[in-house]
């Protein structure tokens, strides 16, 4: 613990690189990716949607896809969490050996073959995951709906989990 501050430094700082020229380098103005990354979305109407997932560098990507499914595309929470996902490996991994694959895009097998072919035609190195895989994260979330006295919950089918509301 840092004396006088009550803070415990995270060992996740080890995910940064000592080379300031590296995308995850420690330098002013850099924004290296660190995990874990829970998030909270607060809607204009006061609704709250906290969400999180295991999954290393896929965490932010999986949570963003779920959030966009709900907020932008109006999907019900359970459908948004269960929808097929993609993940980019174009940024250096946060974990040793810190590899990255600038054109790699992993997609769950439920993504239609035509979409995968279109992505490949656009220059992506498309790798197909199984239809449902824990590699795509396992987002767990709840959402409050102000004025409706309603709380929804969703558990990702990609790992053993369950959701209950009372």
Explain how this protein is built.
- The mean pLDDT is 89.
- 17% of the residues lie in helices and 19% in strands.
- The N and C termini lie far apart (38 Å).
- 21% of the residues are buried.
- The protein has 3 helices and 7 strands, in the order ββααββαβββ.
- It has one domain (33-155): 4-Layer Sandwich (Glutamine Phosphoribosylpyrophosphate, subunit 1, domain 1), CATH 3.60.20.
- The strands form 2 sheets. A 4-stranded antiparallel beta sheet has the order 1-2-6-7. Strands 3-4-5 form a 3-stranded mixed beta sheet, with helices on one face.
- α3 links the parallel β4 and β5 (125-128).
- With 166 residues, the protein is of the alpha+beta class.
